[in-house]
Amino acid sequence: GNPKLKALGWHEEALGKNAVAGGFQGQRAWTDWLPNADFTEAIMASTFDWNGARQPTAFATENDTLNGLSMLLGTLVTNTAPCFHDVRTYWSPDAVERVAGWKPEGKAANGFIHLINSGATALDGTGAAKNGKGEGCMKPFWEMTESDIKACLEATDWERANYEYFRGGGFSSHFKNEASMPVTLLRLNIVEGVGPVLQIAEGETVRLPDEVHELIMNRTDRTWPCTWFAPTLTGEGPFRDVYSVMANWGANHGVTVYGHVGADLLTLAAMLRIPVNMHNVPVEEVYRPHAWAAYGTQDMQAADYKACETYGPLYG
Fold first, then answer.
1. Pairwise CA distance, residues 67 & 186, whole Å
2. Which of 14, 66, 75, 120 could staple 42 via S-S, CB 3.0–4.6 A?
3. pLDDT band at residue 28, thresholds of 50, 70 and 90?
4. Chain centroid offset of residue 302 CA
5. Residues forming the active site
6. CA-based Rg of the chain, rounded to a whole angstrom?
7. C-alpha separations of 69 from 47, 49, 158, 221 in Å
8. pLDDT at position 315, please?
9. 3-class secondary structure for the chain?
10. Is residue 48 within 8 Å of residue 29, measured between CB atoms?
11. Is 212 exposed, middle or buried (0-12, 13-18, 19+ CB in 10 A)?
């Protein structure tokens, strides 16, 4: 709720809805003739607003309920801002070198995935906040300082909305991730006959040379918030290469939160009886209830699916 609405005479609206997450269905019924909600979406999911630091609210672009739930799971596990993304493009090292004349190196050497959203994501995704070592990071909301908030705001431009997408105008939050930092990409999907299924990909954000960044960004939309993501590869299954990670992703949306928290998400998913169809968490970090072993110890993924099916949803 919001007591300021009551002071304006909006008593019922001031009571709120007791919601833990939300979203905005803008494209295209709203945005074809009214300004977009990119500012609202970006600030709601950030760890601060005009009053200072505060707990972020999972708030999904396009009212994508499954990504909204992914945002909720991610922020509850980490207490950091959940960043909504389109899982837009896989860029191979050869493709980058062909179009930009630069061969990816370091953590980007195997290629990367372009995470970008149509005009909005949490401003914490800039990576402009600094930890004790002076490194770019994303912080729990109670650790955000005034200098962190100022840095995130200064790293963000509010660009005029692209009229091709947003005929009603508005302003989009535009930034490029400023830091190389550990993140976890996650997404809940609904599979007919199974129910919710979780996907997890731990990895790193990577920085590109400015001229390479600009060239690739202009192939999509330069007014949108951008993160370059390099998933951690295992050499097996969907994590044998970067292309396979994107090829096996179940939707065009995903969420990043700070840190490698795949193990926590695996345990949470087991508690909620949600099977995980792909992850790159080291086996020694995986913790599920002891009873899961009764469903098989060789094929852990099949055992997870069977256990979740047998026990059924914790809340249903």
1. 9
2. 120
3. confident
4. 27
5. 62, 86
6. 20
7. 18, 22, 27, 26
8. 79
9. CCHHHHHCCCHHHHCCCCCCEEEECCCCCCCCCCCCCHHHHHHHHCCEECCEECCCCEEEECCCHHHHHHHHHHHHHHCCCCEEEEEEEEECHHHHHHHHCCCCCHHHCCCEEEEECCCCCCHHHHCCEECCCCCEECCCHHHCCHHHHHHHHHCCEEEECCCCCCCCCCEEEECECCCCCEEEEEEEEEECCCEEEEEEEEEEEECCCHHHHHHHHCCCCCCCCEEEEEECCCCCHHHCCHHHHHHCCCCCEEEEEECCCHHHHHHHHHHCCCCEEECCCCHHHCCCCHHHHHHCCCCHHHHHHHHHHHHCCCCC
10. no
11. buried
Structure tokens at 75: 């922020």
Distance (Å, rounded) from C-alpha 78 to C-alpha 140? Answer: 7
Among 3.40.50.1240, 3.20.14.10, 3.40.50.720, 3.10.350.10, name the CATH number for the domain at 19-311: 3.20.14.10
Distance CA 261, CA 246 (A): 19
| pTM reported for the whole predicted model | 0.96
**Model confidence over 83-115: pLDDT tens digits?**
999 999 999 999 999 999 999 999 999 999 999
